[in-house]
Design a protein that fits this description.
The structure is a homodimer of 431-residue chains. With 431 residues, chain A is of the alpha/beta class. Chain A is 43% helix and 21% strand. Chain A has 17 helices and 17 strands. The two termini of chain A are 50 Å apart. At the A-B interface, helix 1, helix 10, helix 15, strand 13 and strand 16 of A face helix 1, helix 10, helix 15, strand 13 and strand 16 of B.
Chain lengths: 431, 431
């Protein structure tokens, strides 16, 4: 059997499991999750041993220290993952929830019911913790999952997937719901399986996500760029604006919700730019700016290219704009629809910004770094979406669900309504 | 300017209008809809004159009579469209609705707010009424729309789009929200504009929809096939089962929610097949069947090809299956995830069927023909979706919306939470 056929078999197994999984009760899924947490604790040694193999190989191959650190999975991290699973068990998955109920006519009741999507493929990079979080989110939401982790974590991932699948198999959960792909070529094979895979969630570099988006007919949920802006309005508290700008840029610059661009209303640029530049430079941030910026502070000249760059680093582009509308235009033109913030004391201008900026997350007087499933209280997230359909922003359990329409009748036919013998009543029923 | 550039200009104009439209109040959108209805009535002569040109050309080119009939737009149909607009005005669009509200911490409030998708492209076939319905649904839901109708209705479509855009321009609605494409090549140009168009909804033949799905990176909402089944369970009322089968097949066989396949539990096949075959044949239905069917009634032999065929005609494939699970397997394998019905008096088996059949619409004891936005009470629909994400089944106003996350703060930074100075409270607030 060649690689392509092998991946198709895995997708078919996942598809078949997904159908059975749709009928598994929340209690049984929670029981499986509890067994998984127990097994992760009980088999910590097996996991750590596999992780050591990966770490040794990565060290020998000269993997940079920050990546090595992300690759580590020790007893402490496993306990934290188990805490996460306990949290997940306590959440309501919402599968089976009646979202809408209407009596179309006497004894003809329509229910819109939340249900799992089916088969979800998640492709993620080095951090092996993600395998546990993602597979547990998928199980909780009733989806079968095809997982492909970073190749530098292959032994860890295989151990984790083994522990999880074995543990879940002791609960009334269908086998095959978790499938591990192990090779980069497996991903290419996966991308052609749009008949069997309902959603792909890629997590990784811009280039990687864009490659996935460009090479599959499966719907893709996620984001390539994270070009986030902070706009400081004429009505801003400038001390607050400095703090928000510094936090948005510097609190963790390597992530998608860190700010790349600072937009400043021309009316306050002379007052605001010197202190914000000082605060950013104290944190080691390199600054580029437009001509208006350069007239006030000393910066490298910024061009169109800067407005489109996601630095993921201690660097920021500054543009002086002619008020709110110009800031909105800049963001809708150059931003990536991820997270954008306004700092102002003027509520009407803040509301207009949040209405007109076409981004997943639009913030008033707080840091762009807040856009995150955990901070939002959604529990874990499978990723952050900049899509305009299905799910936007941090994607948790709800983003892994869809709905179906169930119609309960007593023998009704459409002919009776078409010829006027009966008419629809459309009485809403509170679910 | 070549065709490709011209279409890009239209998409950019729509995109720009969509941003402004997101901030237009429901009252203003309703005012625009009322003006549109008035204008359609007031300019009926202009529209009918354009329609006559299309009808004359279609007649001369030998367009078949049923298609000619669909092409007619007269005063009576225009009045009915205006009634539809009045109904749409009375619906709540839900734009701006707060779906979830959580106080993350003191003075840090998160709101998940429904909003329009942005720019929607709808490509539809001959019936020009659709142009009015779709553009009004898009306006009501706050989306800019690119429309391409059937070329045989080009004069009618141009007149309708002109009347609608002119009327809306007298309300506080941004110009450019409605863009008409006029050429088949325009559609090809449109499909490459994934940076500016957020969703495509194709309505037409299987081949056409599949062509769109295969040739764009824009998310596509809709359905290609409509292979719907009726399963008659051992626990069925056989008289009811005959009525539901006949209605599902014959009430309007040319549409997607008409049934193509009849599945019959082996336990009742000998009792059920003769009367259902008689009733179907009285309506002129040609029957094909599996060997089990042929052992009981006289039918053309059915093969795998039959289970995959959408007849859209008075023809039906019959298969005798070994009970509920076999019926579910057949539907999940050969169906198109559109609409499937079970006829049974056994509630537990009905629930299992509705849980395990992975289709947008799953029905118990009623005709497959009920799956329709109007019958569901959703108001008009832009189409029926067999997608597994975003919107499933009949797509009305809600399917034309998405949400964004608004976070209202007072200067909060993430650093305070990361270093433990503050902790999240996640207090739900009822919106």
């Amino acid at each position: 059997m060649n690689a392509k056929q092998a991946i198709k078999e895995k997708a078919l197994a996942a598809e078949s499991a997904s159908i059975a999984l749709a009928a598994v009760s929340e209690a049984d899924k929670n029981a499986a999750l509890a067994l998984i947490a127990d097994a992760l604790k009980g088999q910590t040694e097996r996991i750590v041993r596999a992780n050591t193999r990966d770490l040794d190989a990565a060290d020998a191959s000269g993997l940079p220290r920050p990546l090595l650190k992300r690759l580590v999975l020790d007893g402490k991290k496993i306990l934290r993952l188990c805490d996460g699973i306990a949290g997940l068990i306590s959440l309501e998955a919402g599968t089976g929830k009646v979202l809408l109920c209407v009596e179309l006519d006497d004894g003809l009741e329509l229910r819109k019911v939340r249900c799992p999507i089916g088969v979800v493929a998640v492709i993620f990079e080095s951090r092996p913790d993600a395998l546990v979080q993602i597979s547990c989110l998928c199980l909780k939401s009733g989806n079968a999952v095809l997982l492909k982790g970073g190749s530098e974590a292959r032994h860890t991932n295989a151990a984790l997937a083994g522990v999880i699948a074995e543990a879940a198999s002791r609960a009334p959960v269908p086998a095959g719901w978790l499938q591990l792909l192990e090779d980069r070529r497996d991903v290419e094979a996966l991308l052609s399986l749009d008949a069997h895979v309902d959603l792909v969630i890629p997590r990784g570099s811009n280039e990687f996500v864009r490659h996935i988006m460009d090479n599959t007919k499966i719907p893709v949920l996620g984001h390539a760029d994270g070009i986030c802006s902070v706009y400081v309005d004429a009505g801003a508290d400038l001390k607050m604006a400095v703090e928000i700008t510094v936090d948005s840029k510097c609190q963790y610059p390597a992530v998608c919700n860190a700010a790349e661009t600072l937009l400043v209303d021309g009316a306050i640029a002379a007052d605001f730019l010197p202190p914000v530049a000082k605060a950013l430079r104290e944190k080691g941030v390199r600054l580029a700016g437009c001509a208006g910026t350069a007239a006030i502070i000393d910066v490298e000249p910024a061009t169109d290219r800067h407005w489109k760059t996601e630095y993921l680093d201690l660097a920021m582009s500054i543009r002086v704009v002619d008020g709110l509308e110009a800031a909105i235009d800049h963001i809708n033109r150059y931003g990536s629809g991820h997270t954008d913030a306004i700092v102002t004391n003027d509520q009407a201008r803040a509301e207009r910004f949040m209405e007109m900026v076409d981004s997943a997350n639009v913030f008033w007087n707080c840091s762009t770094r807040f856009s995150d499933g955990f901070r939002y209280g959604l529990g874990a997230e499978v990723g952050i979406s900049t899509n305009k359909i299905h799910a936007r922003g941090p994607v948790g359990l709800e983003g892994l669900s869809i709905y179906k329409w169930k119609l309960y009748g007593r023998g009704q036919t459409v002919a009776d309504y078409a010829d006027g013998a009966k008419t629809f009543k459309h009485r809403p029923i509170h679910p």
